Amino acid sequence: MIGFGILKGLAVTLKRFFQTYLVSNKLGRKHYFTPEGIESRYQASTEGIFTIQYPEEPPVIPEEFRYIPFLLYELNSEGVREYRCTACGICAKVCPPQCIWITRQTDPTTGRPVPHPAEFTIDIDICMNCGFCAEYCPFDAIKMDHDFELASTTRVNNRYSLEQLGKPVDYYAKIRPGNYLREESARAPKKQAEAG
């Protein structure tokens, strides 16, 4: 009986092996290396070749993919970054591995805290990409990124500062278009109330 199981498994492997050549020759080899062909290989009904040749073929990243968090900012009329973050610290409190550190700015004349981050640091070696920081942020200031190619040969650049974490709102609209439109429609009444 043990030998029959091995033969059965080998038959599945050989079937997949021959399908790779039959299907790729029938549809044309170039079909597999187009974006549509790469996306078709992610389906459960895929026949033939179903692996991608990374890094030559980029993987199709789903909209809900999450990796290192980033902070959203908008450029004002003078071209200065205005972060949505108010340095409330909720993201640092809900972070399970405690890899987020925030320092709030202070007004130089009065010495009172101002709702802007002076420092915002995330240690990406500790971050487990859970997305709690983005989930609990009441100001939609922190979101999860799709950029997963962050490997380096040193261990020095493992802490990302405010400047490295900041990305424009347009970038978020490209990676999460449906989610961005829902959030902006929800923010529109608040902006009108503040303006009026």
How does this model look, in words?
This protein has 196 residues and is α+β, with helices and mostly antiparallel strands. It has two domains: 56 residues, no CATH class; 127 residues, Alpha-Beta Plaits, CATH 3.30.70.3270. It is 37% helix and 18% strand. Strands 1, 2, 5 and 7 form a four-stranded mixed beta sheet that branches. A three-stranded antiparallel beta sheet has the order 3-4-6. The longest helix has 26 residues. The radius of gyration is 24 Å and the shape is elongated. The model has no long low-confidence stretch (mean pLDDT 82).
Helical percent range? 25-40%
User: Which architecture of the largest domain per CATH?
Assistant: 2-Layer Sandwich
How many helix segments?
7
Tell me, rounded to a whole number, the average pLDDT.
82
Number of strands: 7
Low-confidence stretches: none
Order of helices and strands: HHEEHEEHEEHEHH
CATH class of the largest domain: Alpha Beta
Which structural class matches the secondary elements?
Answer: alpha+beta
Integer tally of domains: 2
> What is the 3D shape?
elongated
Largest beta-sheet characterization: 4 strands, mixed
The end-to-end span amounts to 79 Å
C-alpha Rg, in Å? Answer: 24 Å
